[in-house]
């Protein structure tokens, strides 16, 4: 996402732009931020949703699990039609509907000692979900 605030973005994010600790400078930083979320479950799924709603420019999601019935009561991105689907795929599709300006990168893997460096080096912040 470009680091520009056009009229549409100003209107969309006006409620956080008016906060003295954010303003237009802070919103531009949010638009260019890259956040990796490790785990798309009970913590990771709402984090992904709220980061996209705030305008974070790039969100990476790492998870190798599929949605199951036992996830639905606490994992806010999923519903019964998602059962059996990979969480990263469902999360990406739903986040794009929330904010189609957010770039979503998915990693259908389990983060481990061998693969973490090549993934986390592309992000400004890491959320352990």
Descriptive account of the structure:
The protein has helices at residues 7-12, 14-17, 23-32, 44-54, 87-98, 116-120; strands at residues 34-38, 58-62, 103-107, 125-128. Helices cover 37% and strands 15% of the residues. It has 129 residues and is of the alpha/beta class. Strand 1, helix 4 and strand 2 (58-62) form a beta-alpha-beta unit. Helix 4 (44-54) runs parallel beside helix 5. The model has no long low-confidence stretch (mean pLDDT 95). The two termini are 24 Å apart. The longest helix is centred in the C-terminal third of the chain and has 12 residues, at 87-98.
Characteristic key phrases:
129 residues, alpha/beta, 4-stranded parallel β-sheet, 6 helices, 4 strands, globular
